[in-house]
Amino acid sequence: MKKILFTCAASSLLCSPAYALKVDLGGIGKGDRIPPNFAFCMPDGKGKTKNGGNLNPQIRWSGAPKGTKSFALLVVDPDVPASFDDANKEGKTLPADMPRQDFYHWVLVDIPADVTSIKQGQDSSGYKQTGKPVGKTSYGVNGQNDYASFMKGSFGGYDGPCPPWNDERLHHYHFRIYALDTPSLDLSGNFTGKQAMEAIGKHTMATAEAVGTYSNRP
Question: Is the dihedral of CA 210, 62, 123, 185 positive or negative?
Answer without folding.
Answer: negative
